[in-house]
Amino acid sequence: MIDFPHIGDICRETPSKIVMLVVDGLGGLAHPATGRSELEAARLPNLDELAGRSACGLTDPVAPGITPGSGPGHMALFGYDPVRHLLGRGVLEAVGIGVELAGGAVAARGNFATVDSAGRLTDRRAGRIPTAQSAPLVEALDRIRAPGVELSALPVRDYRFVLVMRGSGLGAAVSGTDPQELGVPPLEARPLDDASAATAEAVNRFVRAAVEVLGGRETANSVLLRGFSKLPRLPSFGGVYRLNPAAVAAYPMYRGLARVVGMKVLETGQTFSEQLDTLEERFDEHDFFFLHYKPADAAGEDGDFDAKAARLEELDALVPRLLDLRPDALVVAGDHSTPAVLGGHSWHPAPLLVHSALTVGEGVDSFSERACGRGSLGRLPATSVMMLALAHAGKLVKFGP
Amino acid sequence: MIDFPHIGDICRETPSKIVMLVVDGLGGLAHPATGRSELEAARLPNLDELAGRSACGLTDPVAPGITPGSGPGHMALFGYDPVRHLLGRGVLEAVGIGVELAGGAVAARGNFATVDSAGRLTDRRAGRIPTAQSAPLVEALDRIRAPGVELSALPVRDYRFVLVMRGSGLGAAVSGTDPQELGVPPLEARPLDDASAATAEAVNRFVRAAVEVLGGRETANSVLLRGFSKLPRLPSFGGVYRLNPAAVAAYPMYRGLARVVGMKVLETGQTFSEQLDTLEERFDEHDFFFLHYKPADAAGEDGDFDAKAARLEELDALVPRLLDLRPDALVVAGDHSTPAVLGGHSWHPAPLLVHSALTVGEGVDSFSERACGRGSLGRLPATSVMMLALAHAGKLVKFGP
């Protein structure tokens, strides 16, 4: 964890409070017609004013040129090296639906798929069948048993499900069954080390039973499994930083990521306004809050420039409620960029703002990619953000005599 | 040492000369009433003019958010990774009073303390007794003997002293005796590895003898020891960079730090003007000079904004004498920031200026945190400063064919 090995020697408990607002997919790119990014096109009076009295910069979630998934993007902001502490695909899917993976459980991402009469793949996503159709199928898969291994199949959405395997000494080094092409049969799962032989055997037994259960169907008559992984052994966020941290996030994925690092996940509503209600109600109980805002990313993923700008304006309108809480350090950061012109995550650095009693402004007059690039924090790895937050909240003592 | 592993292949000896002026605690923060930092409030015509024809930037001594002590701050500017080459507290105290620690000596920081009749701590600093009172007590402690280990107790100042242990194969992995709280007795020193068993035994023997020696007193009737450490094995500054380096520093701590990396420490006076006399007199003898200016840091530590600005102005007035020497590369750097508004070291990056015949200016019109932040060097780790100094002095050849 952390690029700073002596972190345990310099963190101290204080009554001061930190709020880290993560705006999912915060960064964008200029619209070709206007030359202005989503942040520049949006009217953001509150964030602009806040940037004017904050320390600003740009964060690289992983490294220049690397486009992060949600896992690495958040792990970096939490201060964990996102390369060293990479969460597997199975783990991330499981965590995203609230599955508890402690105790060495192995998780895999599952797809319903369609095969022809000779068992050759004709559709790796089974026509993207909707949840209404897949849910009862997952229920049937969940009844499959294997000796010595406890199997659970859990619905995600549409054609996606999670397989969780529990048992003693199950390795996760198992090859996926998805051949990534059509016209060939699914692959056998193979153990990639000795400790994973029993896991691979249970996987193959599960797949055979699944094909039997689903056999009568024309579509969604097979399954593909990949991303076998376990929860990595992670240092606890609260333990390392000497914080009592809480997460206020509406989406299961981000609640799950917070849980993975040991934050307390607070019950909250689906809207950001409800999340702020929760923050206000529980503000006395914790000294660190991870507050997650999703809608900007979703609009960016849809490639809808105007919608992304509108979602940022909606966020901006609620910023005064955050400021009214008077956190000792307030961080506004992005887990990655999601430019609408790309319609997906990108590698571009994300704007960052750190506000505390010590920041009096540095001539940055708006909260945007370009303006933050002129800030005093310069361009820094996202793993540095927690150290800045702790420093601004007076929670770090001097390093070295 | 050095973030550049091939350093040995690219350094070459040349007649060119480098002066690195380290302004201790250089960086500051804006005064809440004016919005201007100490550097911005001070009148610095010479440094401003120099910045206007230099390459400028901001350096992180250790990492964003990390507040360094004097040791890490200087080690970084000398090009040594300050985390990997962390000097222990005992070593730094010993080095600061000019003690030679070569040959595996173990040093510890000592405090006089006061205990009650039951041996419980009532004051961990013995009322901060002045040097006049503590000096004869240290002399008495210096007479304590232990079999197989040569013990020396040396005065630092007020209630502080240094214990140095010499002998064959003494480990330094010994726990401190300071419980960091009152109402409990001092702790026994414990060996934290096998090689340190004899050290711990000698420490405990020293403490018992010290309590006997001091026993009749009402205050300062006990001692606390911590920060057991040895000089780390460091590559020689002159050897690695192929330099013949000298240090011109008034304060023992910085003379000691220069000695630790193998610089020749020149005799000099207590004022910066006297340090410049030394530099002028000895300028022909060396090709690298570490010149240390302390007063700005001291004023910042006192929380005296105006005094810090005044100390910077006093430095500025003497800058022409530096320029008259026409060093091939002149670096003005800070080991860390010491903002008067914080009254202590801080994590903020420090302004940096590198001047040579190759720097013609880049629109930076003053030597301050904000102005240097707009410079061409951007924000960089302090460990990069030596490489820039060497490059500007023509002392580095091409890397790779």
Going by CATH, what is the homologous superfamily of the largest domain in chain A?
Alkaline Phosphatase, subunit A
Report the CATH topology name of the largest domain in chain A.
Answer: Alkaline Phosphatase, subunit A
Q: What is the level-2 CATH architecture name of the largest domain in chain A?
A: 3-Layer(aba) Sandwich
Q: How big is the Rg of chain A? A: 23 Å
* CATH class placement of the largest domain in chain A: Alpha Beta
Structural class of chain A: alpha/beta
From the spread of the alpha carbons, the general shape of chain A counts as globular
Number of structural units classed as domains of chain A? 2
Chain oligomer state: homodimer
Succession of helices and strands of chain A: HEHHEHHEEHEEHEHEHEHEHHEEHEH
Low-confidence stretches of chain A: none
- Give the distance, in angstroms, between the N- and C-terminal Cα atoms of chain A: 23 Å
Individual helix count of chain A:
14
Largest interface: A-B, 29 and 38 residues
How many E-type strands of chain A?
Answer: 13
- What is the percent of helical residues of chain A? 25-40%
User: pLDDT average of chain A, as an integer?
Assistant: 95
Description:
2 copies of one chain form a homodimer. The radius of gyration of chain A is 23 Å and the shape is globular. Chain A is of the alpha/beta class and 401 residues long. The longest helix of chain A has 20 residues, at 305-324. The two termini of chain A are 23 Å apart. Chain A has 14 helices and 13 strands. In chain A, the strands form 2 sheets. An 8-stranded mixed sheet of chain A has the order 9-8-10-1-11-12-2-13. In chain A, strands 3, 4, 5, 6 and 7 form a 5-stranded antiparallel sheet that branches. The A-B interface holds A 3-6, 10, 358, 360-363, 374, 376-380, 384, 386-391, 396-401 and B 29-30, 32, 35, 58, 62-72, 82-83, 86-89, 92-93, 227, 341-342, 344-347, 349, 369-370, 373-374, 378-379.
